[in-house]
Amino acid sequence: MSFVATAPQLLSVAAEQAGGIGSAIGAASAAAAAPTIGLLAAAEDEVSAAVAALFGSHAQNYQVLSSQAAAFHDRFVEALRNSAGWYAAAEAANANPLQCLLDAINAPTQTLLGRPLIGNGADAVSPGRGGGDGGLLYGNGGAGYTSTTAGVAGTRGGNAGLIGAGGRGGGGGAGAMGGGGGNGGWLYGAGGNGGQGGAGAMGGAGGNALLIGNGGAGGAGGDGASGAAGVNPTQHVTQPDATPGGAGSPLTGTGGGAGTNGIAGQTGGAGAAGATGIGGGGGGGAGGAGGDGAPGGAGGAGGDANG
């Protein structure tokens, strides 16, 4: 005995598309009817009349075949639509007794322990709630909640029962950890993988395998957060100015002395002004060099000449 697997939804879509093809064929046949039926002879001679009769006969035969093809196509589309409905009804008829049987099996443990005997745990859909545990006899744990809100951590995946895999941990929001994976089945089953951490946070731990199976992989850590922008320093002079240079001699008109160089953070001393001399004015003293982070001192003015 051979088995057939079908998708009723796809059959319904195919029936609708086939109906569109039939409409296109009907429109083409109607457009061809006017120029082909009732073809007139080109002249009144016997040859022209015979040619017109031949083409007129072909046109009538085409219209008959076109009508038969349209009727066949309509029957095919109707059969396709009916088959989609029959398959859907068969699936519903088969599913209902099995679901009722499963509900009857799970009812005692669900009532006493809050957990089904057979079946997968539900995935978490809200913050703070972990994935549901799988059935006591058979079933996988549900996935933990994955957060999209900064600072809200992902939740833990559900544990399996006797046989089954642990649920995957949920991912954390920015700055929050991912949830841990659920434990595998007591007899057989792999632990769930940990959830990915949010930006700058750790991933969740993988779930444990108890007797037979592999432990879950730990979740990946989140990307590091961006650093703060640097601030440019400003000039800051905390030392007094260095010693200025001495004045030049008024008799000889010598130049003023150079200012003392400044140390780090100190302005250099100002050069002294040159003295007024008899023969000529002395040059102003050179300003001292400024220390690191400070300007140099100003040079002194030259003296006036009297001679």
Automatic annotation (TrEMBL):
InterPro entries: PE-PGRS_N, PGRS_rpt, PPE_sf. Residues 245-307 have a biased composition (Gly residues). Residues 4-94 form the PE domain. It comes from the Bacteria. Residues 232-241 have a biased composition (Polar residues). Gene3D superfamilies: HP0062-like domain. Residues 222-307 are annotated as: Disordered. This is PE family protein. It comes from Mycobacterium angelicum. The lineage of its organism: Bacteria, Bacillati, Actinomycetota, Actinomycetes, Mycobacteriales.
